[in-house]
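Notebook, p. 212. Picked up where the previous page left off. The plan for this session was modest: take the two constructs that came back from the sequencing core last week, fold each one, and keep the raw output in the notebook itself so nobody has to go hunting through shared drives later. Recording the first one now, exactly as returned: residue sequence, then the structure token string.
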Amino acid sequence: MDIILDKVKRLPHDPGVYIMKDKDENIIYVGKAKDLKKRVSQYFLRKQEHIKVRNMVENVRDFDFYVVNDEVEALALENNLIKKHQPFYNILLKDSKTYAYIKINLKEDFPRFEISRRLNKNDKYFGPYMAGVSAKEVLSILDYAFQLRKCKLPLAENKKPIKPCLFKEMHMCSAPCAKLISKKDYNLEVNEAIKFLKGDTKHVEEILNEKMRIASENENYETALILRDRLKMLEKLKSKVITSLGSLVDYDVFSLNTSGEYSAMCVLNIRGGKLQGVQTFDILNFLDTNEAYTQFIMQYYGTHPLNVDEIIMPDIKTDEIELFLKDKAGKKIVVTKPKIDSVKFKLLDMAEKNAHMHIEKNLERTIKQVNASKGAVRQLKADLNLSREPKRIECYDISHTYGTYTVASMVVVQNGEKAPKMYRKFKIETVDFIDDFASMREVLTRRMEELKKGVDISFSSMPDLIIIDGGKGQLSVAVDVLGKYGYPNDLISLAKREEEVFKPHESRPYILKKGGYSLRLVQLARDEAHRFAITFNRSLRAKGMYRGGLESISGVGPVTRRALLSNFKSIDNIRKASLEELSSVKGISKKTAENIFKHFNKN
């Protein structure tokens, strides 16, 4: 504690971010401050009344800090560090179901609407769609109401016209590809579609009813039935209107409910005056309610579009939230703390009740999951005599098809639970035959090189434990590679047949108790790595992606590929090699060298 107090005395009165560490140097909390000295001093020079803060402080053995220019930079850095390190006492927004949006890129000459679950800053989004409203069905309503293109053909006004497709015959596309509509007229249709997605359903309802009438009169009953179904979906959309709002407003409503140790945050998505979605998230740890809202909202809008003009929240301090929202949106976003008995207060109350019901319904399951995860991490440390609790575990596996399409996977288990956003996959570049040892050498080398770069969030964190899927041979390769990089933490391998765990420089394997937390945790990591690698391998095979194209070159078989890769080390070097350099490789004829050279120098 004396060391910590001495560091506190030397802290500057500048804005910044501080990082609390435990006895194993694990990062357990990240915070921001307008004044670093004042904020950090409060933890150690004042008695903590809040039990969570007291528990955190008791676990702190050291801290680091970064000075920044202002509060906005502090917010951004804090958010990035929380995402990178996932500290135990910060809000951790777990991977949740990714809801569908309908997006459009208005910068295209002839924009098209499509479904997306990923965000791109160049696109405009509508949604999310959930709670009985399907994004696919909403998009289908657009298809029948407006003649907007479905294809991904690159179109521009100066492009030559082409023959229109079947959608034109079905009156579901105006065929801009064939120059049958001007850009101005096409954009009028786009604007009408946007009005509908924002909540104005009247015009679309009229169009669909008229088309259904015409289809019935022409005895085109199949189309008439489809249009009837679309009108039913339209009624479902209309039924979700909150009439008392009185206008086509777009709100996000946030409310936190807590039972003490376990909490939940509910988010209501109001779009065009309609309740379009209800999302509820488990929250396991937070030190302060203001920080809980701030950190949650920052993480939430990292994966959801900020396409509202107003956010509704309880009466808490929102200065930092407003700063973040303005910086994120490039404009002021109104943060409303509604008055009692107002319509907005009723929305906030609805969110709070949903959060409360979520806790009551899921509390027992959540407690079991958390206790199992914490217990597994602690138990694995004890069972394998590890140097620290493995809060971040990385597991590696190799997959190939008879020596081709060789890939590797890296999966991450954080605090005893899967962290899919941290998973990474590799195409093996230096091995073109069956050699799992060489493939493992490559992937671990590449992983440690990425660690030095510190660009990718997943690669920039040092794991507490690395698991290699394999026996002693694979482990020896890992020891050799990681030793060259000075990897300081634990390393094990898991043999598949008997589930034997091997540690470096120990001849006898560890046998973990069947059905125990430790074995389940190791198996979770191994099975995920195996699944992820096989899935990637199959996807490459399905696409017919021959790595580097070597297999398709006349005269190049397994022996020749092995010789080429042994000499040039990578596909890229083979691609750059001159005809003379290729001919000089032992075992490669002049004709084969010419075939290789022509393959990579077609232009």
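Okay, moving on. Second construct, recorded in the same format:
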Amino acid sequence: MRQFFLLSSLALLPIASAAQSTQTDTIAAKELQEVVIEAPKVIRKADMDVYHPSKSAVGNSKNGMQLLGNLMIPSLTVSDALGTVQAAGQSVQLRINGRQATIDQVRALLPETIRRVEWIDNPGLRYGGANYVLNIIVANPTLGGSLMASARPALNTAWGFYMADAKFNVGRSQWEVGGNYKLTDNLSAHRDYTETFTYPDGSSITRDETSRGGRIDNSMANIWASYNYIKPDTTVFMAEFGFHRDINDKTRYDGLLSLSDGSDDILLTDSRGADGNTPSLSLYWQQNFSRRQMLILNFSSSFYFGRTYSDYLEQLPGAASYLTDIHTDIKDRNQAYAVEADYIKNWKNGRFTAGASYTANRNRSEYVSLGGEVFHQRQDKVYIFAEYFHRFGKWTATAGMGVQYTDFLFKESNRGNHSWSPRPQATITYALNQSHNFRLSFTSWQSTPTLAETNIVPRQLDGFQWQVGNQDLRTANSYMLTFRYGFSLPRVNGTFGIRAFTSPNAITPLLRWDDNRLLTTYENSRGLQNLSFFLAPQIEIVPGWLTASGYVQFRMERMRGTGYEYRSNAWSGNASLQLSHWGFVLSGQYTRAQRDLWGEKISWGEDLNIIDLSYNWKSWQFGAGIIMPFGKYDQGSRSLSRWNRNEQHMRLDMRIPYIQVSYNLQWGRQRRSARKLVDSSASADRSASAGR
């Protein structure tokens, strides 16, 4: 079976299509008369791929996440069990009717309310530098209500997920309330770690860490409530409140440290964690005017009140005192606010979009372990953009320019930085016929320094290593050029593409010796460049019964920084296979995580496989599955630095069998969530306690 998944991942692999557009369902805005390429399951437009859920896909789903998985979109990896959505190993910006949404909000959607799914793999300027966008469109609201509930407990450990959501509709108004709870308690973990330190004089020492066990706790809860008012063809108003609670987020490793200089073995304990609360509020208003014009305003805010902490202990066996005793405790009170305004004007063959947004972060960090010393950081971002889309027969073109202004200041030192960054973007698409199209796109974006990268408070990692931020960091620029060929053949559709990426001043870690301490700080590097080749097909092996989809990518990278230059080549991808009939759905999924070169380190995420079987009966769904039925869970990194070469593997006991029971109750005629065309995002930052 394992070989089958591996062969499937090589036979099936990446896709997409791409860029900005979103017309309203709740307000009558006609779609542009674009040339589309129709396939049995996908319509290829100039700026996106559109998937319309089949009757069987809806019938076999009990929430929005399951429906996304049943669509089998190539290159997209959807796991309802793990609560993740990724594409080509990167994050996917989720949207519901154009407004940015969380996985919890997507999961709370009733499958019957989803009209179509828009897959955008070259997002326009309005999406703020997102890698990919998945926009879920729901129909106009009517009357009625619904109750959704689901439970997924594990059979061999304290792991599981539980949720409930209710919607009530009266006239043009809808109220929603819901909540969920994710349980991960005392999950067994192990870490294998080997590192070699080289001093400036050429001498070196090697430390090998042998695991003595460990554990991971990661329990959290969310509650939400929303209200929306919709007057068709005229007005949409939405108000949403959410509250996130980190109940127990802690990782601990115990190990035995052996040194190459013949010293006695050392017992070590390395642990870190966080706990806190994050309330959030967003308000949205959308108004249609004459001559196909639209104005959208959005406000959002979030607050983080919590703490991060870490402990690193080294001790000789049987000794009463510690060789190394490092304790870090940081309390955060951080705020974020964002407001955005967009204007959209449509013509028969064109569309003009312009917008402006402002985002403010106010961070206050109290270092309890440093006698209560307090540090403040202020960060402001202004973003302005305009872009135009037009159709010329079989050709379509989009061009636009965005400008971002970033300013951040550290109150205690009165130091900071500010910059203006242009963000040009353009796309050209040619539809050869109903089965083939070609797209060339150029995009750019900026990345601002984070709170952890700029914090100048020294944090000790272990007996050798320290970490400190750099307040002189500048905003980093990234540019990407992508060519895609989309094809739609009988029982097979997909995309082949080539992608070139560069970030000439990427913000990356930098290692250097400071006396007898190995210091990790951050710099604007000399740049990262990579070239990727990808393929993503969907194959109807037995129409209506058996479908396969997947993604494979080969990427060549070069990374340059102060005193180093590295190259890396790696394969990555995923494969999904689904058999459905008579209410049963049997699915299998295999993922090989992307290997990322960043700074002087190659890191990789989770290599996973999952098997799931479910049965749908009326309003009920009963299921069972197992995470990691084959192989061993591995997540880790490898440092290439001349000062510290190391390799780390985190291994979890992830062979987790589970059962699932879901129930959907609906009454009256269903109202579907209001649609947002834009969404301002305000995400409160948080500190990071140092860890090895």
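Notes on construct two before I forget. Residues 348 and 507 are 43 Å apart (CA to CA).
Flagging for discussion at group meeting.
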